[in-house]
Every structure is written in structure tokens, then in C-alpha cells.
Amino acid sequence: MLPGWGRNGRAVQISRILGTRTAWTTMGDGEFFCPGCGGDRNYQRLTGRRRFTLLGVPVLPRGDTGPVVECAACGRHYGADVLDHPTTTRFSAMLRDAVHTVALAVLAAGGACSRTSLETAATAVRSAGFDDCTEDQLGALVEALAADTGRIFGEPCGAGLAIELHEALDPLAPHLAATGRESILLQGARIALADGPYTPAERDVLATVGAALTICADDVTRLLAAARTPS
């Protein structure tokens, strides 16, 4: 037997003669969160056509492949579903808007906004990314929303407010760990408790927040009770 023509040698020789090659075509580009890099990166969305090669020359079509997402930084390929994950910038904006919406909903449910409630809410909203949020701004927003919708302060969570909460929280919930979802609920609970025990309307709003964050009812009850216990 000639050198290099054992079982492994034959495989190597064949692979040098026959193979496959993919010709990629760019279908679009943008920015995404790259799991490999661990941060926001540019990407190209690619679709490909595979061909058999003979001595490195494409000869016969083998079908289409893709689409795939290629990271411009690390060059790795991912399935198109990787684009469902928000970028870091988008995620931060979603979280900021969610906390802001929850704060307004709890304040509206609590009735006349006390200064302590407004201070607690403003602190939560600033921590979420609205650096210039003030107590007066939140109070004016709650009053404006009530005037615009005809909503009465302190009433249970109506359909309109429930829709607003779900619109802000539903897209965010799948991308948060359990502790992150619970943290948003607890922030709302602390706003409600800032001026005294929960009112029925505040509990109703917080239950809606928990449902939108996919927290089960028993865990919502447990978390609301825990928020009442001084640490």
C-alpha cells in the first residue's frame, strides 16, 4: 500500500478532491446582541447556495442554506432567531420605559400622590435611566393622564391601564431573569407602600404588573407581603 493511502489517508485525499463550498449573499444588515462577543455588534444577514466542488472548483449545486446572521466582529454564524434578542441599548430603553409605566400606574392607583410616594417613584425611575426625572414631573404626568382619560384617582386597574402595562412589560419579560422581573414588581410595591398600606386599587395594579411579567399569582402575593416587611 502506498504511503498516505491507509483508511485515514484515503479520507484526506478524497476531501482534497471532493468537497462543498457555500456562496453567501448579503440580504441585510444591522446591529444585534452577539452571544459570542457578549455585546452589541454589527451583523450581516446572509443566505447561501451550496455546491459540490471538484479540486476546489464548484461543479454541481447542492441546494440553499441559511439564512444566517454573521457577526461583523467575531465572524460567527447564528440562526436568524438571534435577532429576537434586543440589543443592550434597546434592552435598557425597554427597562426604563417599563419602570416608568409601572411607577405612573401605581401612583395613579394610589389616589392623591403623596410626597413620599412621588419621591420613591422618582428614585426608581431615575435608577432605571431617566436621570432628570423629578417628583413634580411625575405628579404632573399622573394628573395629565387622569384628565386625558377621565380616569378617577384610586380606582381599580381598568382595561386601558392594563393594556398600557402589558404593552410595556410583555416584550421585556422574556429577556429578564426571575430576579429581574421580581425587582420591577417590588419597585412598584415600594411606591405603593411609601404612604401607607396597599389600597385595593394598588393591589389590583400590582397584580396586573405581576401577570404581565409572567409571575404567578402565588409569587405575586408572596412578594407583596415581603415588601411590607422592614428589612
Automatic annotation (TrEMBL):
InterPro entries tied to this protein: DjlA_N, TerB-like
Transmembrane domains' residue ranges: none
Residue span, Co-chaperone DjlA N-terminal domain: 97-222
Residue runs in coiled coils: none
Protein name, as recorded: TerB family tellurite resistance protein
Protein source organism: Streptomyces mirabilis
Lineage summary: Bacteria, Bacillati, Actinomycetota, Actinomycetes, Kitasatosporales
